């Protein structure tokens, strides 16, 4: 996926938001610290999000990667919002504190444009065993920058879908449609709410953060006919369509969603679903691996269907957590060896052998979905996941043209700040501290400031 361009006006500086400026100011005293190896000795320093697949990687690295290569790895593992902030700080300053970090297809175009990432084409060319052609095309495209160079490798790819308790639905005499609408989901959430002690009808993210509550909410906005901005950069957060979608989401999670919804993100909803506290969960396809993992109390009890829709044929997002190599790293050769190993077919086979194939960080390689061992264990969600990724359309995710590519985000650097601040307003509405109308009125003003930069 080529990085988005404003359709009107000149290219603007990539770093302009208050959040980015604050981050750079905080790091101004460390400008001479390139190549720092705070993990100790010659260890690679890897910064990554605390999703289950990354935690599994951390456990396997010393016994396998370090044993085979002699390269030690020091991990810093943080929640999603925290890791985004720290990656932006360290890479923007090129301090070299972290050699490798998990970045997404959202950040990559801007990081590459600013010269913060080491291009990987040369390493790929010299490492034919990596098999770059096996990486699913949507992910290859999303990790290739405007200059045509590759700047990251996916650890896993994901879209979004609806997960539900098959056994609970059967007990309640309910049937999940093969392709549900959001209205159908709301009705099913009402009917399953309280069906078992402590069980709510659905889990939806309410945690502030552009990568938390805003991600699923924006897919609802898209399929209900809304958009953050028109093709001509007119903010539309107070439009009838955006209001309808936001009210629907807020009302649904308040009426039938998890307890503590304003503090619930991906990790919390995964925990709720695993512990039997939710009858349904709309979120990342990556969550299925944990639900079906060996030892999961809900293994075999979950059904998977496409992301709910209203006015569009599909509504799942496209996202990847990928390994980015900081340009300032003085250990780039060793860093590539780690990236190559962590994104390889061999690593997936290792996870399959040690933790079960359902726990493999999938969604990135065509060979995974052709692997009979993977299909035997992950068959419950493999096809739905692959279809969700392949049907995602970042350039046309809604019902009208957009100024940038992006499904669950707006593809401009300012969105990290805008999305987070809007998320705070939405989360406050979920908490009952203000109305949706008030939240969106404030959000519209925030969006207008961004729009001014691109008109």
Automatic annotation (TrEMBL):
- Say which domain of life the source belongs to: Bacteria
Query: Could you tell me what this protein is called?
Result: Sugar ABC transporter substrate-binding protein
Q: Which Pfam families match?
A: SBP_bac_1 (PF01547)
Keyword annotations for this protein, in alphabetical order, are: Signal
Q: Tell me the leader sequence span.
A: 1-33
Species of origin reads Streptomyces koyangensis
Keyword Signal on entry? yes
**Keyword Signal on entry:** yes
């Amino acid at each position: 996926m080529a990085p988005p361009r404003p359709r009107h006006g000149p290219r603007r500086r990539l770093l302009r938001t208050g959040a980015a400026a604050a981050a750079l100011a905080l790091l101004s005293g460390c400008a001479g610290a390139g190549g720092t190896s705070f993990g100790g000795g010659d260890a690679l320093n890897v910064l990554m999000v605390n999703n289950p697949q990354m935690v599994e990687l951390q456990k396997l690295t010393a016994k396998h990667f370090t044993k085979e290569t002699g390269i030690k790895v020091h991990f810093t593992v943080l929640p999603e919002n925290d890791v985004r902030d720290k990656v932006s700080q360290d890479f923007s300053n090129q301090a070299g504190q972290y050699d490798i970090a998990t970045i997404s297809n959202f950040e990559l175009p801007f990081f590459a444009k600013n010269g913060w990432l080491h291009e990987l084409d040369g390493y790929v060319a010299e490492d034919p065993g990596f098999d770059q052609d096996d990486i699913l095309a949507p992910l290859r495209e999303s990790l290739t920058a405007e200059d045509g160079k590759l700047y990251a490798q996916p650890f896993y790819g994901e879209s979004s879908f609806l997960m539900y308790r098959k056994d609970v639905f059967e007990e309640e005499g309910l049937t999940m449609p093969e392709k549900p609408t959001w209205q159908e989901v709301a009705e099913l959430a009402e009917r399953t709410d309280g069906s078992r002690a402590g069980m709510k009808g659905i889990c939806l993210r309410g945690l502030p953060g552009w990568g938390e509550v805003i991600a699923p909410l924006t897919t609802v906005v898209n399929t209900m006919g809304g958009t953050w901005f028109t093709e001509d950069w007119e903010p539309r957060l107070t439009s009838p369509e955006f209001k309808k979608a936001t009210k629907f989401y807020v009302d649904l999670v308040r009426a039938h969603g998890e307890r503590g919804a304003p503090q619930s993100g991906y990790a919390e909803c995964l925990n709720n679903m695993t512990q039997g506290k939710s009858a349904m969960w709309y979120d990342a396809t990556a969550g299925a691996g944990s639900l079906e993992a060996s030892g999961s109390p809900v293994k075999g009890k979950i059904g998977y269907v496409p992301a709910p829709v209203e006015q569009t044929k599909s509504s799942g997002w496209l996202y990847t957590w990928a390994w980015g190599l900081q340009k300032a790293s003085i250990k780039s050769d060793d860093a590539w060896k780690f990236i190559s190993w962590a994104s390889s077919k061999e690593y997936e086979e290792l996870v399959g052998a040690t933790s079960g194939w359902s726990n493999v960080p999938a969604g990135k390689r065509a060979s995974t979905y052709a692997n009979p061992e993977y299909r035997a264990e992950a068959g419950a969600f493999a096809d739905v996941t692959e279809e969700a990724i392949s049907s995602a359309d970042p350039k046309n995710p809604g019902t009208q043209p957009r100024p940038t590519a992006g499904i669950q985000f707006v593809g401009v650097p300012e969105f990290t700040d805008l999305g987070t601040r809007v998320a705070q307003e939405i989360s406050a509405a979920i908490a009952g501290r203000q109305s949706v109308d008030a939240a969106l009125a404030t959000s519209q003003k925030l969006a207008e400031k961004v729009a001014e930069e691109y008109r």
